[in-house]
Each structure stands twice: as C-alpha cells, then as structure tokens.
C-alpha cells in the first residue's frame, strides 16, 4: 500500500506548486495512511489455510503438525465424498 501512497503524495505535492489545495490533499492522504493504512496483519485473523508464523521450537512445530493431521483425519472421516473429490481435483 505504501508503494502507491508515497508516489501519489509526491505527485500531489508537485501539483501543489500550481494550486495549494493539492498540498492539503497530500497531507490528508498521508494522515489517513498513517492512521489507517499501516495496521499490522496481527489485528486481523489469518485466512483459512494460510500459514501462520513459524513455531519457536521444534516441540511447537510437532504439536502444530500433529493438530493439523488430527483435523485432516477428522475431515476425511466426517466428509468422505468431499475429501475424495478434493483428492481427484488435486491430481488433475
């Protein structure tokens, strides 16, 4: 997002030499970006299936891996038709 905001602000500043209202708009864009645009992704939950942060220890990795395997076995057991369809689609 910053890659769009910074050049856009520079363009507004350059345009501001002809009309000072562009400078005000550039300041408003920067204020909005600092206030709302720089939020970290930790405030929003990760998407389903997206990898999370790397575990700190090997034990944490094993626990996470075992939990994931448990979820996959449960899914396979409770939804056999969907699981088979997904496996079929994966091989295509």
Q: How much helix is in the residues? A: 55-70%
DSSP summary, beta strand count: 0
Distance between the termini: 36 Å
Query: Which structural class should the secondary elements be placed in?
Result: mainly alpha
Written as H for each helix and E for each strand, in order along the chain, the element string is: HHHH
* Average of the residue pLDDT scores: 82
Taken as a percent bin, the fraction of beta residues is: under 5%
Low-pLDDT segments, ≥5 res? none
Report the total helices: 4
- Using only CA atoms, what is the Rg? 24 Å
Biased composition (Low complexity): 40-57
Region (Disordered): 40-69
Biased composition (Basic and acidic residues): 60-69
Transmembrane segments: 6-34
Describe the fold and architecture:
The protein has helices at residues 2-15, 21-37, 58-78, 80-91. It has 92 residues and is mainly alpha-helical. It folds into two domains: 2-39, no CATH class; 54-91. It contains four helices and no strands. It comes from Streptomyces anandii.
Short description:
This is Integral membrane protein. α1 (2-15) runs antiparallel to α2 (21-37).
